[in-house]
Amino acid sequence: MANSHGPLERLLHAPNLPSIVPRLEPEILQRVIYAYGLEDSAELLAHATPEQLARVLDTDVWRAPQPGGDEAFDPDRFGLWLTVLMQSGAANAAGKLAALDIDLMVAGVASHIAVFDAAAAASYTTLDGEHVAGRPLHDGLTYEVGGYSIEARRNSAWDPIVELLVLLEEERPDYFQRVMRGCVRLSNGVREPDGPNELLDDREQDLLDLGLDREARREQRGYIAPAQARAFFKETRSLRVDTEAPPGSAIAGAYFRAIESAPLTTQRDAPAAPDVAMVFELLEQAELPTSRPRALLGAADAQPSVLSFVQTYGATHATGEQELAYLANTLLAGCSIQGRPLTVREGSDCALAVCNLGLENWPSHWPVRDLITAFQIGWKILHRDVCMYAARHLNEALCAIRCSDRDTQLRLDGLRRGLVRHLKDGVPWRAGEALDAILILDAVCWVAMRALIAECPVLHTALDASRRAGLTVDPADFQFISQNRHIQIVHEFLARLPSLLAE
Questions:
Q1: What's the helix, strand, coil split of the chain in %, to 5?
Q2: CA 105/CA 115 separation, integer angstroms
């Protein structure tokens, strides 16, 4: 990404910044913070509202271990947020934090400190004169505030947390007690084994409940949970086009019903037009997406021949934009490309391309068309005729290769065994790391096969035989597969694969 500090400096120095920031949509505010860097965004956060912060934190302090994986609460990211907020002004930050969900505050603070009642942790003498030692102090950071002893679990946000707790104890004693009592509960020792039952401890249960509440909030705003996205793709790969038309995706149907039943919320007035224009202009200069997934292509859009089917559909179906948004969000939540999450633009482009492929191959005996089913047809074709097809051809090509170098041959044999195992389960992309073995044989073939043997296969420039000589191997040089013609290009390349690897 280009250096975005230059364009965004204009926003930070705008004289009406205090009136601009509170009126930005949380998603836009988050992109500004992402571009500028959270560590340098204290001035922006000083003007953000608690409602904006709650929405941004719902996204930013939850991280997935890998693209499409389930998101988990990130204590270190929460600690950084708390640190930057305190830099924006301690009293101001305390007010914003006190307006957040108390369960989020307790979980976040308790992930950084252990809290105990000071009296319960102190030494004492019994009536019989016996001295009972108090709770031993650890060698790490400790502090006492408001009748509680606290110990550091993590040191990264220790100073701002202590400063915050002291301020809350002085100015918001009721809220301080709620946070500390919650932290005391989560600071208990490990639960004793309970026979055959495997119960979560209090901290694990709180994080689970926190995550479920977050998913419910985000679902009402149109987000897709990674687990739901993965279930949709699994359902899609089992679609059959040689039967009667299916009743429609049960997972997508449940999503749209949840959206329709969500309570209407009162939105803030939109920013004045000049303010909006400036913010969006700065985001574009910083090379950040400024909108939700794009709407269906209109008549004046470019590339009519590449996406002609979806363009025709969009001209006659009013529900297309809503369906496209669902598909793009599902791709963002549950799929990866080149081993990373899709960007917002890529999610929209991919949804359009796959829908176009599905509409081109729509079964003639299925009368009523919709984009969700079209996407499922296209995704099924990509899985069967690109991903699985490419994995089988690579496996066959590897069977015929014998290398004099023993280490290379062992790696190729390991790749072949992995392909056989994952082909059986219909998920050959799980052998992705082992594909590096063919880099030794041919770098161009390696980057092409990485693009094809993927959950979201794409058409890489490496498949173009006319450009093979002198081709720079760039994994990002690809386009989404949107037509049968693209699949034909894939098959022609795979027919040449054995000879290319043997050269």
A1: 60, 5, 35
A2: 14
Q: Give yes or no for residue 1 having a pLDDT over 60.
A: no
* H or E element at residue 478: strand 478-480
Q: How far is CA 140 from CA 128, 134, 151, 183, in A?
A: 34, 17, 7, 18
Q: Is 358 exposed, middle or buried (0-12, 13-18, 19+ CB in 10 A)?
A: buried
Q: Are 151 and 114 in contact (CB under 8 A)?
A: yes
SS3 of residue 225 by DSSP: coil
Express each pLDDT in 359-402 by its tens digit: 999 998 898 889 999 999 999 999 999 999 999 999 999 998 98
CA-CA distance, 330 to 333, in Å (whole number)?
5
Q: What is the largest CA-CA distance in the chain?
A: 94
DSSP 415-463: HHHHHHHHHHHT-GGGGTGGGGGGGTT-HHHHHHHHHHSSSS-EEEGGG
DSSP string, 369-396: --HHHHHHHHHHHHIIIIIIHHHHHHHH
**Is the CB of residue 93 less than 8 Å from the CB of residue 86?**
yes
In this structure, what token pair is assigned to residue 378? Answer: 């296209």
According to DSSP, residue 480 is labeled E
- β-pairing, 336-337 vs 340-341, is antiparallel
The two tokens of residue 336 are: 């990866």
CB 371 within 8 A of CB 324: yes
**Mean per-residue pLDDT of the chain:** 83
Helix, strand or coil, per DSSP, at residue 334: helix
- Which tokens hold the place of 393? 């051809």
> How is residue 467 annotated by DSSP?
G
CB atoms within 10 A of CB 228: 18
